[in-house]
Amino acid sequence: MTTPPPDAVPTAAGRSRRSARPAAPRRGRDRRARVVPPPPGRAGISGEAPHTAVIGGGIAGLAAATALAERGVRVTLYEREAGLGGRLSGRQVQLADGFRATMTRGFHAFFRQYYNLRGLLRRADPALGMLTGLPDYPLRHSSGLRDSFAHVPRTPPWSALGFALLSPTFTLREMARMNPRAALPLLDVRTPGVYERLDGVSARDFLDRIRFPEAAHHLAFEVFSRSFFADPGELSAAEMALMFHIYFLGSSEGLLFDVPDEPFPQALWEPLGRYLTGHGVAVHTGCAVETVEPRPDGGVTVLGSHGAARHDAVVLALDTAGLRGLVAASPRLGDPDWRERVRRLRTAPPFLVSRLWLDRPVAPDRPGFLGTSGFGALDNVSVLERWEGEAARWASRTGGSVVELHAYALRTDTDRRAQQDRLLDQLSRVYPETRGAKVVDAQHEWRADCPLFPVGGYQDRPTVRTPDPAVMVAGDLVRTDLPVALMERAATTGFLAANALLARWGVRGQTLWTVPDRGRSAVLRGMARVAGA
């Protein structure tokens, strides 16, 4: 069965307990979205079903397991942590006041261009009732400058033009200094061509060439580039250009987004886990895989805390460190060139998520999410009770607020306690009413497990296919010719990995959708060709 992409965003179902939350607009997919059909084949497995291992229970692994199981493949999913979700999993904590809460990696925007991720989530809830829309994507600089995307047109090219006209960072004087020729490559972003042109340049240097207004550079583009958990000076300009295409000039969904209305495990992964087990998937959480050994008959042996198990194929849906470690421990996996490229993969710098349960509320007009710049290491502030049920219940009971602070691309030698204290100090600058608030409890997540997309690193990134036709790779670190990024890249490559295996067995896989794979306007594409001349 081919599951359609998301053609609407959350309905009003389940909203009565927080009726003040805004509903997302009911809109369909971008009419210019690209359809990516799978190779032709039968509707499902006939005869004895092959047995596939999926290693990793994050978005990529869940997508791969879903597409395989729906078509009759026997699937065993191995996840080393206690629950599903990968980097978006969660853990139970008991607060100082006795309340049991779920600590997660925090705020993630589920953009409406994430067709394949949303299609995955529809398996558990066809109406996507677990998502709710936030009304704006506000940005604030310490200088007092503010930006908003609530009133920016969504249809390209008016989206980019509208942003420039409505933003206080684009003054006439500053715009007159810009180098429009250097910006022309943004008008026709294609994959993999954008990597051939811009992977050798950093995002910061590319923006410097264009001479974007410095205020816009810091307030908007730096906030966006740091969503890759990297400093703009290290991030490949190709990744930033692709992001510009996905959100501004390649799609009509704009930069507004949805968020889960409960913590990730309850809203997303537990329902999807039930869907998978209902399709016969053997889900083994708390089960670390140590090695993958190719077999003479073309299959693999997966060895880990569960013992040894034979499979006909495997999908490696791991984060950067996990993939590097498993490949290093599996000396017969792949060929020397592939293994060396995996070894060179890098992880983005550490980041901090601090969640604070405060004894008093933030001001009622504070947004659910705010991107920040110029406030030290603070990159954004979320007020969770604006959208998350668990936080809303705590806030209603206590009269307080649940506030989350993110700081990306920190130094590896950062003094953790001092950095946590500095974020709290910056919060009082952003929202002064928190200055005298008592912290009822605090939870801090220090992580360094996101992929880094460095200047010149594109060719080293693995593709879905490996030298072994029985071994596939999936995840947001994977290189693909489709215009996808972040969580959508994880979901898309998970489906692509399943499709590649299904094609071996003569079965038709999952149809995919992406934003258009080139600039939408023939006039703008022609202007972009001028830059390449």
TrEMBL record:
Record flagged with keyword Lipid biosynthesis: no
Domain of life, per lineage: Bacteria
Organism: Streptomyces rimosus subsp. rimosus
InterPro entries the UniProt entry points to: Amino_oxidase (IPR002937), FAD/NAD-bd_sf (IPR036188), Zeta_carotene_desat/Oxidored (IPR050464)
Biased composition (Basic residues): 15-34
Keywords from the named record: Oxidoreductase
Protein name stated in the entry: 15-cis-phytoene desaturase
EC number(s) reported in the record: 1.3.5.5
GO MF term list: oxidoreductase activity
Annotated Gene3D superfamilies: FAD/NAD(P)-binding domain
Major enzyme class: oxidoreductase
